Each structure stands twice: as structure tokens, then as C-alpha cells.
Amino acid sequence: MNTTILVNGAEHHLDMDPQTPLLWVLREQLGLTGTKYSCGIGECGACTVLIDGQAQHACTLPVSRVSGKEVVTIEGFQGPLADTLRRAWLAEDVAQCGYCQPGQILSAASLLLHRPDADDHHINTAMAPVLCRCGTYQAIRRAIHIAKEEYCHVTAPICQQSPSLPADKLCGRDGLSVEHRPASPAKPQQTG
Ligand code: FES
Ligand code: FES
Q: Relative to the CA of 47, which ligand 1 atom is closest?
């Protein structure tokens, strides 16, 4: 069966069993080996990718289910949020063996896209599906807090990349929460 998928901004036309896990398509067909294979049964999170901005396990996701959606792997994860997370990861020296880290970073990205005000509880919940045998959890939590402050409250318009974000969760480039942001100037009235 023919399937077309969009991965890291590029369309790929595939002729394969639609039940083939996305993980194998990424690794074997497209050569995107940054998405890791570990348990293969949705238990470890090593294979986490972004599907329309949501972190999901690629090992249990049939390729037919991502048709029409945007898949982002660690290789294609670029832009201000990616840069900010990578800087924070380096600042906290997070990676040990590194095997779980693509899944960790993409899970953190999904979290900050949907909860730019994430606290420790949100972080623990969002990151729980990605296991780390090297025990980098504390460093990951610190790095996410750093990234959150830099990206959401200082540098970049995370909320503008997340149109589905509730208004009370938006923060501005100016670092002000919605409650403290000055009211927008009134629009000029149309005449004639
Ligand atoms: S390899 Fe997919 S969750 Fe473990
Ligand atoms: S850094 Fe080694 S498994 Fe997470």
C-alpha cells in the first residue's frame, strides 16, 4: 500500500505494509537513526518523536497513522526552541551515554510547546514516559527550567507557535504574563 508521510519537512512516498511501525520507517527507510530503538513495545520512550508537536512513541505507531501529520525527529528539530533546549542541556551537562537523549529533548519540546508555564509536576509527568538508565532525571529537570525561562519568558514567542494554547497560559516576548501585559491599543475605527 502507498503511504505518504511528512518527516522533517520533506514528503516521502512509501510502498509498504501500513501497519509497519513508524520507527522502522524512520531508521531503515529514511536513515534517521537519531530515533532510537530499545524496548519496541512503548515502554521506554527511546523512540520518541514529535507528531504535530506531540511527543509520541514511534515504535508502536503504525506508519499509516501519521499520514497527513507532521513528523519531526531529532535530526529535524530546529529553530529557537531547539536551540534553547540544546543550550540548556549543555549548560546542565545532561547527557551521559546519550541513548535516551533524543527522546528526552523532544519530550521536553512537546511539554514547553503545550505548557510554557511548566512546573516540576508538569515536567515529571511529561518526562516520565522516557526512561534514562544513566539517571539524568534531575539534570533534565534543571535544564527544562532553564530552557523555559530563556525561551518562554525572555527570548522567543513560544505561545505564537502554539495557537491551541489557552489564553491564560500565554506569555509574551516581554516576559509579562497575560495578566500583567498592558492592554493592546484600541484599533482605529473604520470610517466610510
Ligand atoms: S523503543 Fe519505543 S518506547 Fe521503547
Ligand atoms: S543518558 Fe544514558 S540512558 Fe539516558
A: 2
Among 51-60, 145-154, 173-182, the range scoring the smallest mean pLDDT is 173-182
Superfamily name and number for 80-163 = [2Fe-2S]-binding domain (1.10.150.120)
39 Cβ closer than 6 Å to some ligand 2 atom:
no
Strands laid side by side in the 70-72 sheet: 10-15, 2-7, 70-72, 48-51, 54-57
Confidence (pLDDT) at 57: 98
pLDDT of amino acid 191: 38
Domain boundaries, the chain: 2-72, 80-163
Q: Is the pLDDT of residue 68 over 80?
A: yes
Report the separation in Å between the CA atom of 102 and the middle of ligand 2, taken as the mean of its atom positions.
10
Question: Terminal CA-to-CA distance of the chain, rounded, Å?
Answer: 58
Domain 2-72 has CATH 1.25.40.20: no
Closest CA to 80 of 109, 123, 111: 109
How much is the mean pLDDT over the chain?
85
Ligand 2 proximity of 136 Cβ (cutoff 6 Å): yes
Looking at the CA of 95, which ligand is closest? 2
CA 13 / ligand 1 centre spacing (Å): 25
